[in-house]
Design brief:
The protein is of the alpha+beta class. It has one domain (2-65). 30% of the residues lie in helices and 33% in strands. It has one helix and five strands. It has one helix at 2-22, and strands at residues 24-29, 34-39, 45-51, 53-54, 64-65. A hairpin with a 5-residue loop joins strand 2 (34-39) and strand 3. The longest helix is centred in the N-terminal third of the chain and has 21 residues, at 2-22. The termini are far apart.
């Protein structure tokens, strides 16, 4: 029973971490022409607009481009 409880809570923690990253959606600051991320739930800016291109999150990672990098 103890092992089941630990596994359950670890899975719950991982789900919370992944769902928080998946909650982020790209948005463009039209005046700057740069991209960032905001929370889909609250609309708050989570990652400032500083990227030339962004992708969606997958496994808590996203591709971004600043200049040639």
């Amino acid at each position: 029973m103890i092992i089941f409880t630990r596994v359950f809570f670890l899975n719950l923690l991982l789900f919370c971490l992944v769902s928080s990253a998946e909650d982020l959606i790209p948005f463009k600051n039209k005046s700057l022409g740069l991209w960032g991320y905001r929370s889909q739930k609250t609309g708050d800016i989570v990652i400032d607009t500083k990227y030339d291109e962004v992708g969606g999150f997958r496994n808590e990672l996203s591709s971004v481009r600043i200049g040639q990098l």
